[in-house]
Amino acid sequence: MARELNEVGVVGLGTMGAGIAEVLARAGLSVTAVEVSEGALARGRAHVEQSTDRAVARGKLDAAERDAIFERIRFSSSLEDLADAELVIEAVPERMELKAEVFAELDKICPPDTILATNTSSLSVTELSVVTGRPSKVIGMHFFNPAPVMKLVEVVQTVVTEPSVVEDVEALAERLGKVDVTIGDRAGFIANALLFGYLNHAVAMYENRYASREDIDAAMRLGCGLPMGPLALMDLIGIDTAYEILDTMYKQSRNRLHAPSPVIKQMMTAGLLGRKSGRGFYSYAEPGSAEVV
Ligand code: 3HC
């Protein structure tokens, strides 16, 4: 029978980490949410506040439930506070050296049976597992943006992940109200491997001035019934995150579909990171907002 995980940690409170912390706390788990600096911690907290306030405004949550969610999240700037966690989900930026550093630290701090999960969307879970002394307890738990809304969790098992760890994480995903799919460790897993070739192609179409951003997005929304056009979705995902994912997939597969369109790197360098910075393919009323100006 699956182990019920109740004490969990999240490391990194960017768009994904903050969303994951919210999902866990909404499901009644006790969450320790860790960021490196007080500033980053305040931004992570503000992200959860914005999301839960929106749910209250829409009548999906009452104020008491929102307060209870915040009581279940302990915000901290020290990884040492994860010493009692049964599961830690890492959601720091998509760079191997950063994630490896976090995993090596967690390995020292957490008890040997703590499950270490990564929310990576393209890096090798196996490579991360071997920086720890517990590769069999390392797994991928890949959420989708916005985490409180999107139903899928990809559970990524390596060749050494213990079957009981897979079961525990699958059971947790279901408790969070998500649908899980379990797959092996390959860059992009299922969803990103299929999605990012399409997104990259849409960017190339825009870059080559074949069509306007509005027309590309309208074509996919209205012609194919997608909730968002590809350029608006790039802004939601974050241009830097999208670049890292494409670059990793391209390096692994050498499939030209995934060779990042040049403008993506240029936008990243110029700080046009999408919604989170206030400007990407579109401009937004304020950083983080969904309102296009
Ligand atoms: N955080 C929390 N909740 C949010 C949110 C956010 N950022 N954005 C929207 N929501 C909630 C709203 O509160 C609303 O909730 P309700 O139905 O309970 O009232 C619901 O989502 C619908 O929102 P809206 O009515 O404002 O807007 P839409 O109907 O246009 O939905 C959307 C917004 C859910 C973002 C929708 O456009 C969508 O599904 N877009 C596609 C998203 C997608 O493809 N994500 C995957 C990206 S790839 C990825 O994440 C992988 C990673 O590795 C990069």
From TrEMBL:
Residues 188-284 form the 3-hydroxyacyl-CoA dehydrogenase C-terminal domain. Residues 8-185 form the 3-hydroxyacyl-CoA dehydrogenase NAD binding domain. It comes from the Bacteria. Belongs to the 3-hydroxyacyl-CoA dehydrogenase family. This is 3-hydroxybutyryl-CoA dehydrogenase. The chain holds residues 1 to 293 of 593 of the full protein.
